[in-house]
C-alpha cells in the first residue's frame, strides 16, 4: 500500500489532522443535488484521518444533525494529495 501524502509531500497517517482544500468536480457532480451544499461546507475545515484504505487513500468524515426534521446525514470522503494539507495542531 502506498503511503499517502498531502499536497506538500508530507506523509499522512491514521490520526493525522488535515485541512480539506478542495474536492474534485467529478466527485461533486456524483452527489445528489441536496447534498452538495453540505459537502462543500467541509472545504477549509480540519478533520482527523480515520482510515487509510487499501489504495492508500486517507478518509475523513463529517456528520450533520437536522433536529427540526429529526434527521442525521454524514459523508465519508477519500482524499487525493491535492485535496488536503497536513495541519500542525500548534497552528490551530
What keywords describe this structure?
single chain; alpha+beta; three-stranded antiparallel sheet; 15% helix
How would you sum up this structure, described in words?
- This protein has one domain.
- The chain has 2 helices and 6 strands, in the order βααβββββ.
- It has helices spanning 25-30, 33-40; strands at 17-20, 46-48, 51-52, 58-66, 71-78, 84-86.
- It has a 3-stranded antiparallel beta sheet, with no helix packed on it. The protein has a 3-stranded antiparallel beta sheet with strand order 3-4-5, with no helix packed on it.
- A hairpin with a 5-residue loop joins β3 (51-52) and β4 (58-66).
Approximately what portion of the residues adopt beta-strand conformation? Answer: 25-35%
Biggest β-sheet, characterized?
A: 3 strands, antiparallel
- The helix tally amounts to 2
Structural class: alpha+beta
Q: Going across the major beta sheet, what is the strand order? A: 2-1-6
N-to-C series of helices and strands: EHHEEEEE
Strand tally, please? 6
Q: Rough shape? A: globular
Helix content, binned percent? 10-25%
What is the C-alpha radius of gyration, as a whole number of Å?
Answer: 14 Å
- The low-pLDDT segments are none
Mean model confidence by pLDDT:
92
**Total domain count:** 1
